[in-house]
Amino acid sequence: MKIAIVGGGPGGLYFAALMKQLDPSHDITLWERNAASDTFGFGVVFSDETLGGIGNADPVVAEYMSRRFARWSDIDIHFRGEMMTVGGQGFAAMSRKELLELLQRRCIELNVDVRFSTLAPAVEELEANYDLVLAADGINSQIRAKYADSFKPNLDPRTNKFMWLGTDQVFEAFKFFVKETEWGVMQIHGYPYSDEGSTFIVEMHQDVWRAAGFDETANEVFPPGVSDEKAIAKIRQIFAEELNGYEVLTNNSKWINFTTVRNENWRHNNVVLLGDAAHTAHFSIGSGTKLAMEDSLALAACLHEHADVESALAAYEAERRPVVASTQRAAQASLEWFERIGQYKDQDPTQFAFNLLTRSRRITQENLRLRDPEFADAVDRGFASSQGLTEVAPAMFQPFRIGELELKNRIVVSPMDMYSATDGVPGDFHKVHLGSKALGGAGLVMTEMVCVSEAGRITPGCSGLYTDDQRDSWKEIVDFVHSRSTARIGAQLGHSGRKGSTKLMWEGIDQPLESGNWTAVGPSALPYSPENQIPVELDRAGMDAIKAEFVASTVRADEAGFDLLEIHAAHGYLLSSFLSPVSNKRTDEYGGSLENRLRFPLEVFDAVRAAWPAHKPVTVRISATDWIEGGNTSDDSVSIAKAFVEHGAAGLDVSTGQVAKEEKPAFGRSYQTPFADRIRQEVAAPAGVAVIAVGAISTYDDVNSILLAGRADLIALGRTHLYDPQWTLHAAAEQEYQGPGAQWIPQFRAGRRKPPSSRTDAVRPRLSLLKEADIQESNTHLRWTPESAAASVLVK
After folding, report:
1. DSSP 402-433
2. How far apart are the C-alpha atoms of 728 and 443, rounded to whole Å?
3. Cβ neighbours of residue 238 closer than 8 Å, sequence gap 6 or more
4. Whether the predicted pLDDT of 760 surpasses 60
5. pLDDT-based confidence at residue 523 (cuts at 50, 70, 90)
6. At what angle do helices 599-611 and 634-646 cross, to 10 degrees?
7. 20 to 30 A from 660, CA-CA: which of 1, 549, 781, 784?
8. Strand 132-135 with 75-79, pairing
9. Which uninterrupted H or E stretch holds 95?
10. Which backbone phi and psi does 111 adopt, to 5 degrees?
11. With the CA atoms of 123, 128, 129 and 135 taken in that order, what torsion angle do they form, in degrees rounded to the nearest 10?
């Protein structure tokens, strides 16, 4: 093959070396506009997984890298005058300059035509004269810009400012210095990369950056290689204690806003993107160099395994894209956490450290327990103490109070529409459905959205509380839950609004009825989708009638014996459609500003709160973002949450989206939790109000991790409980918990231990001299010092 590579960073160089090893007859030319000696940055961090791949692909490179690595396993988190150390992580880093020198030498040894200080020919010329053109030209890729119509890039500049620096202080571990200053919270990400120095990244929100006066040089243009010395002088002053007399080192150091790069496609004909040109991931979870070298390995392998370039590039993208997407999801969660770090400044240091460690959702409590059981136990003890509890137990089994309602544990069965009522009357199905979840150990069981009128149903199968027959049937279910379990049960009240008069879910979700339909209503005459009805815009009389229906249903809910009431103001149903500018285009006092859009939902809430017994809590489910440009955002959700809290909401059930068909949610594990987290920190916790997190949470480990980090007070699980109605009790058994938070009814008590299955559960003979716990203890805490570096060289 004849291969052109644009960009002489680690990704381009490593790809060239790998291709030459696979077939020395490849004709490879690499262009790099900077000189060979121009190196920006300090250290590069690698994972054990990546190092294993490098070792398999190029033992020469791997062996040299291993001799230059700084290795350690500890993370030190400095916060509010304390240092928390967490071990068992495993890091390896080296100088970026040394890595580039190594890869440059390797390419020259293998006869790659490397042209430094040289601009590459126009990409059209390369595309015509080479079999493959590799665009490894970085985050500001000109090739990507040239073929933007094919690659379809999405560039997302973030709000935090950061500066890449170094220090001659040799850190012994990965360091997070989180410092509360007079201007706001600033943080340092630091790690050693040799026996001579460490990387020292300063980061802060742009509001803090501006308040501290760092914007003084914002309009200055610094030539390549020139650093922002005024800002660096100020950094030396602010972080004098952390520097401890050591120097700050510069290398093209200036303020940057991190930009997340995504591309819908990575290839255009025989041109392919690699590394930062294709994707970026925030430095707080790894390095772009690591991702680029992994790209290079995968691309070289696919080219070697396939007969033609087109199929090889398709295979490369299919293989690599899911890995990158997973990394970017974790990186997005991490960068957003650091953007909001100020909201955690009052947390207990141990909880804060746990919160920081689990920010990307890649580390969880159980994962941490394997790495550093001593710290994991400290987190459990700290959580129990913060709740005023004496018993240390898994967080999910600690009791909780919403208003005056005591719950035995933190697990909620999320409201799930079953579409199985007859004329709005729940029957045996609902009794079995909700009864089984109550017997299964959840602390609170929620009904589906119970509709306040016949016209307020979503489908003909939706249940209601607009007749006495419906109330009496609900009472049978409530009585069963109360008499047969220690669970509490709540009713969710709602009105379908413009999403009403549709088919049962399994007949066509959100599809309009073909016959027997009824008139849908909404704040504006805008359909949920082109297929749905155009709703009738509500006038004042219609709004008053619906408010009265909510009140009447509230009274029946109390007569049925429900312990809690939730108002459904999410997912595009009536109250939600008033809140969202996507569905509310009114020009009167109920439309326009958020204050106006809140007016009717708050009127309904006030009427319900007044009709509901004072000792029973009322919660509200909200959509914390519409996932639509021009719709409600996370900022809006904070204002919405605050308004409901001020009107007496005892809890906020935080979901997202489903407001309009054109939404584009960022699905992923626990993807809605950050919205609940923000509302809890900024609104709910200061007011003593509960926050319920929901959405793609399915393991007890994730549940405990969210609770321990202080991101929510309760966790609602829906599909998980459909898969296993006794999920909560099974989670207790798997965690070896027995206590009031997970009580098996007498009839089921014999099943509280997992039945034996196969040989894998057998008692094993002892075949080692040391217990695993002893081995774990010896490996948990590894520090990096110049002395340990010298010792490792001596060993070699």
Report:
1. ETTEEESSSEEE--------BTTB--HHHHHH
2. 9
3. 179, 181, 186, 212
4. no
5. very high
6. 30
7. 549
8. unpaired
9. strand 91-95
10. 70, 35
11. 30
Question: 532-553 as b/e, with b when 16 or more CB fall inside 10 Å?
Answer: bbebeebeeeebeebbebbbbb
- List pLDDT tens digits, range 557-605: 999 999 999 999 999 999 999 999 999 999 999 999 999 999 999 999 9
Contact between 645 and 658 (Cβ < 8 Å): no
Tokens read off for 550: 């909510």
* Residues with active-site annotation: 573
Residue 737: name the closest of 769, 705, 704 by CA.
704
CA distance 334 to 625: 19
71 in Cβ contact with 192 (< 8 Å): no
Do the Cβ atoms of 705 and 683 come closer than 8 Å?
no
C-alpha–C-alpha distance, residues 441 and 486, integer Å: 8
Contact in structure between 189 and 91 (CB atoms under 8 Å): no
Locate the DSSP E strands across 234-329: 248-249, 256-263, 267-268, 271-273
Question: Tokens representing 432?
Answer: 């079995």
CB 590 within 8 A of CB 600: yes
Residue 668, judged by CB atoms within 10 A of its CB (0-12, 13-18, 19+), counts as middle
Distance CA 471, CA 557 (A): 7
- Please count the CA atoms within 13 angstroms of the CA of 264 that sit on its side-chain side: 8
pLDDT at 769: 65
Task: Note the pTM of the prediction, 2 decimals.
Answer: 0.91
Q: With H, G, I as helix, E, B as strand and everything else as coil, classify residue 779.
A: helix
pLDDT tens, residue by residue, 236-264: 999 999 999 999 999 999 999 999 999 99
Q: How far is CA 70 from the centre of its chain?
A: 30
Give yes or no for residue 701 having a pLDDT over 50.
yes
Q: Measured between alpha carbons, how far is residue 461 from residues 92, 457, 514 in Å?
A: 58, 8, 15
Is the distance from CB of 263 to CB of 273 less than 8 angstroms?
Answer: yes
Q: Is 122 helix (H, G, I), strand (E, B) or coil?
A: coil
DSSP state of 118: -
Q: CA-to-CA distance for 30 and 10, rounded, in angstroms?
A: 12
- The pairing of strands 184-192 and 174-181 is antiparallel
Separation CA 14–CA 102 (nearest Å): 10
Edge-to-edge order in the sheet of strand 271-273: 113-116, 27-32, 2-6, 132-135, 271-273, 267-268
Rg (CA), the chain: 29
What single letter denotes the amino acid at residue 286?
G
Q: Extract the tokens encoding 663.
A: 């939404």
Instruction: Check residue 90 and give its pLDDT.
Output: 84
* Residue bearing tokens 């060239």: 16
Cα of 352 vs its chain's centroid, Å: 17
Q: Which two tokens stand for residue 728?
A: 């909560």
Q: Can you read off the two tokens belonging to residue 112?
A: 């790659």
Tell me what percent of the chain is helix, strand and coil, each rounded to the nearest 5: 40, 20, 40
